[in-house]
């Protein structure tokens, strides 16, 4: 005679799935610097890509594109100067729990400004080989900064549910059932394979 199946309480997963940042909006002191960082990162990435296109036009024989390439480089330097204080504010701004912002935007802003200055100097010195190599690295660095700036969340992380509360609720709902509708305090007869074994109803302790 086999025993009826026993309902087990489901266990919490060892590695729960990652939550999306759907919490409340972050304080204004946190959101505004991150929005400024997004704007300057987008503008600098667009300018460095435009400078690449203009440099290619110059190499194809359109010599008037060289002047536009120079203007784009000057505008890029101005945007990077504005990005530096924006990145510093991102680091300085405190979150809801008093934590500081990430440090990497400030480091990236300093490196991009220094690399843009070196790129401009090699261009005026006609060091074409160094200028082109540094330009390729500069484009990659700007794209890295652009993706990182847009990945910074503008919302505060939502509170995760307590594992203890979930386990308690499930255990109570499973162990204190009243059985059948007639109020006899008995569990219903198991169905399927277990029903054919002839096992009787199981008494539930009050």
**What does the radius of gyration come to?**
32 Å
Can you tell me the residue ranges where pLDDT is under 50 for at least 5 consecutive residues? 13-20, 158-181, 192-199
Topology as a string of helices (H) and strands (E): HHHHH
Helix count equals 5
Mean pLDDT: 75
Shape estimate: elongated
Distance, first to last CA: 25 Å
In terms of structural class, how would the helical and strand content be classed? mainly alpha
- Helix amount: 55-70%
Strand content: under 5%
How many DSSP-defined strands? 0
For the largest beta-sheet, the strand count, sense and barrel status come to: none
Write structural notes for this entry:
The protein has a domain at 28-151. The model is unreliable at 13-20, 158-181 and 192-199 (pLDDT under 50). With 206 residues, it is an all-alpha fold. It is 57% helix and 0% strand. The two termini are 25 Å apart.
Labels describing this entry:
206 residues, mainly alpha
Note the topology:
Blueprint: H1 28-59, H2 65-92, H3 104-124, H4 128-151, H5 163-175
Helix pairs in contact: 1-2, 1-4, 2-3, 3-4
Describe what is shown at a glance.
Helices cover 57% and strands 0% of the residues. By secondary structure, the protein is an all-alpha fold.
